[in-house]
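Severity: low
Component: inverse-folding endpoint
Summary: output formatting inconsistent between runs
Steps to reproduce: submit the following structure tokens with default settings.
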């Protein structure tokens, strides 16, 4: 739950921007399956389905053993995770994504503790997310509201309409 050179645990978002973190978590909780972006060996993006889990101040990414996304993350830990937008076009709950680096969990006790709580199909790869950014885009007619949080910086909110030449803070 401490800051590292590559990102921070989800608990840091919960502590520093609690209302924003709660909005992000609610958006991910609204649907079970989300879209994970990883990098293939040739540098091209790969999009895969994933169930994300916020638990114990961490964002956990679990996946089948030997899956392409797990192999991608082992080679290059950078990722973005986009919350399932759900049905319709109203952006109910906002459009949310988090980005960072995935750290593979190899400690058998930590894996067992997670498995006891989450009950994933076994065996599985488990990664802990170290966040570098969280973004939420929502509507507040007539504005599009863009909220962005980067560890070590305050939450940034920009409101704009399609008529705006430049975005307006707050």
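Observed output (run 2 of 3):
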């Amino acid at each position: 739950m401490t800051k590292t050179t590559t990102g921070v645990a989800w608990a840091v978002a919960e502590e520093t921007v609690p209302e924003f973190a709660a909005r992000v978590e609610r958006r991910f909780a609204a649907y079970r399956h989300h879209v994970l972006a990883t990098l293939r060996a040739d540098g091209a993006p790969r999009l895969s389905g994933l169930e994300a889990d916020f638990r114990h101040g961490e964002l956990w990414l679990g996946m089948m053993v030997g899956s392409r996304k797990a192999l991608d993350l082992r080679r290059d830990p950078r990722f973005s995770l986009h919350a399932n937008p759900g049905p319709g076009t109203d952006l109910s709950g906002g459009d949310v994504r988090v980005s960072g680096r995935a750290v593979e969990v190899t400690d058998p006790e930590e894996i067992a503790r997670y498995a006891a709580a989450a009950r994933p199909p076994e065996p599985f790869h488990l990664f802990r997310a170290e966040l570098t950014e969280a973004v939420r885009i929502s509507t507040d007619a007539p504005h599009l509201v863009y909220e962005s949080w980067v560890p070590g910086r305050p939450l940034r909110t920009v409101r704009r309409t399609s008529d705006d030449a430049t975005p307006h803070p707050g």
